[in-house]
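[job 0417] fold request received: Metalloendopeptidase
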Amino acid sequence: MAHFPVPFRPAHLRHRALVASALLALTAGSVATGLPSGTPAARADDLKDKHGKVRSQIKAAESDLEDTSAASVRAHRALSAAQAKLDAAQGALATSRAKLAEAQQLDAALQTQLTQAEAAVTKAKAELARQKEVVEEQRRDIGRQAAANLHQTSPQLVGLSTMLRSQDPATLPTGMQAVDNMMTEQNTLLDKMKALQSQLDRKKDALTKAQEQVRAKREAAAANLTEMARLEGQARTAEASVAALVGQRTTAQQAADKAKASDQAQLSSLNAEDARISAQLKKRAAAAKAAAARASTSGQGGGSSSSNGSGPLLRPVSGYVTSPFGYRVHPIYGYYSLHNGTDFHAPCGTPMKAVGNGKVIEKYYQSAWGNRLLIDLGQVRGHNVVVIYNHAPGYRVGVGDRVSRGEIVGYSGTTGWSTGCHLHFTVMVDGVPKNPLDWM
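[job 0417] inference complete; emitting structure tokens
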């Protein structure tokens, strides 16, 4: 558990980042081992090692939250969840608004295109009408010419008839030329009629295409209007969701602030408790040294000899370290503080052993530490050493009891501020917390 907070610049929340990084590392490791070199057994061992490291990282991230009450952790997670939902809702709202703006721009463009297409239809109809009139006029000219030929009222035909009735051969070429001229004129009229008819057909095709474009533009505009209505509804729903989530986030923030204030009050009490214990143990250490000095002066010697000799302490449990001793930044509140012990992996009910011969000097419950047990080991390596067990559901020994090295003193648990069953183990040397691993 982290203690003795000192001023430090605010830090970003690390818990989610650490866990996410660990999970990402696990995923990356799994993917990376898809086509690795080496034997299948080697690949399996490598994956197992990576998986174990990731699990340790996740446990370490959870241990960082040990200096936080369960209520505060819940409030912080609720706040983070509310913020994530709010961010997602705001993103959805921005997307809906952007799509709506695009639909509105498209609507304006379609309306312009529709107006242009309708104007093209009007123009095509007018040109078609004019072309029809030209064609009809040409047909009337041909009809009049045909009627004149039929009734032989044409001067050319009258002259031709006279020449053909003449017995003079010299007039025949002139008559044939007149016939050629008449046929040429007739063919010219027919060719002109065909050209005019082709123009008329093209005008009809242009009108049909223009009408099809108008129809397509109208359908596109209608579909876009339907989409605009849908997007407007979507945007209104997103706005309502954002408004509701803003309220939820405000509520979550208030709960987190309240939990933080409560935690800080309890941390102040906890620090006072730590200071009390430290002062008490320093007095015990000073008294022990004074007694040892008196004994040495009187020649008695050994009155304060180490209960364990100079050998290392036993490990209290066999589990691996999940959170080491040392200073760190609190993952929620951002202050810099000392994690005054070592957290060991210890599933619920794991036996906890006495690390040396000693005497139980305190056993009590504290809101953050849970159930605590303090054992005075006497002189170890020339220093007074007291060890502290935390978070257990209870202990098998009581104040005044003497314990032997390796004796089971209790079982691991998760009382107090704890994210799961484990052992937070502290070594106090002359009243000052030291790294437990240096004494094992």
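[job 0417] notes: The longest strand covers residues 370-380. Confidence is low (pLDDT under 50) at residues 1-41, 60-65, 301-310.
[job 0417] exit 0
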